[in-house]
Amino acid sequence: MPTVWFSSNGERLGTYDGHKGTVWWLDPTKDSKILLTGGADMTLKIWNVETGEKLHDFPHTGPVRHVEWAEGDGMFVSVSDPFRGAAATVSVYEFSRNVDEQPQEPKYVWEVNGLEQGKKISRATWLPLNKAILTCDEFGVMRIHEVETGRVIREIHEHSKRINCLSWNKEKFFLITGSADNSAILWDAVDWKVLKVYETDRPVNAVAISPIKEHVFVAGGQEAMSVTTTSAKVGKFETKLFHMVFGEEFGNVRGHFGPVNTIAVHPEGTGYVCCEHGGLAVAVEARFTSGSEDGYVRVHDFDKEYFQLHSELDDLSALTNLA
């Protein structure tokens, strides 16, 4: 079940009870008052963050793989898996903070043209100003769609295997994607050029971009089915830190004993959170979090030496030299 914690001392504040299966994704509004969750029980739910009250329940035709608020929090998108003959679908809802006025049906629903029947959409995200929606699939294909019809505006083929994760920089100029092909790619979100490829020796399940430095975070690890027969070192479960521009790995953070599935960096860049076992982490206070299939959410503080790294490029001007 979705759970909220105090990051300062690890105390659990409360839970959001209502899903009857794995919760695959969650996303709060910018003001942290309303929460979206999507689960394997084929429902998307909306919650009051402060009270834990369930405000709305939206049934889907398959497990809800991904949910995300649009800019301005006036709409949200959900992705559901294929199930019992129904194809994978993308649903777009309007949102009203007046409970009685909330539409129960999606405004737009569409299937992804070009995706084989029975195959999954792994992620979806709103492009800047909500002008389009980008989807990623289990073959490594990215597609840009019209919001209303789902018409494919552009297809992008760079990853060779399933795209597991994506993350924007704070200005939404750059997008980073991570894949089971052992790589993460930094994209120019205007013309969709590849700016940098970060190669690893393990599937990439989680990526993030620092809001204050030219650093990217890349994590993942060996497939969960093999974890019990290998050590943490062999499983490669650490979070890697790369220089965004030069692509060099300059550090890593260890501690997890299973594949890391999510990373969230504090909005001020002072730390990060990572979590496992499909959990989601939203970084708060001066930290970062990570999550893994070892059942732990880990909160990490950056030390003084970290903030002294690569300070000569902290204005991002060097990115203009990438082609």
UniProtKB/TrEMBL annotation:
Keywords: Cytoplasm, Initiation factor, Protein biosynthesis, Repeat, WD repeat
InterPro entries tied to this protein: eIF3i, WD40/YVTN_repeat-like_dom_sf, WD40_PAC1, WD40_repeat_CS, WD40_repeat_dom_sf, WD40_rpt
Keyword Repeat: yes
Origin: domain of life: Eukaryota
WD repeats: 16-57, 156-188
PROSITE patterns: WD_REPEATS_1, WD_REPEATS_2, WD_REPEATS_REGION
GO terms assigned for molecular function: translation initiation factor activity
SMART domains, sorted: WD40
Similarity comment: Belongs to the WD repeat STRAP family.
PANTHER family membership: EUKARYOTIC TRANSLATION INITIATION FACTOR 3 SUBUNIT I
Protein name per Swiss-Prot or TrEMBL: Serine-threonine kinase receptor-associated protein
Species this chain originates from: Durusdinium trenchii
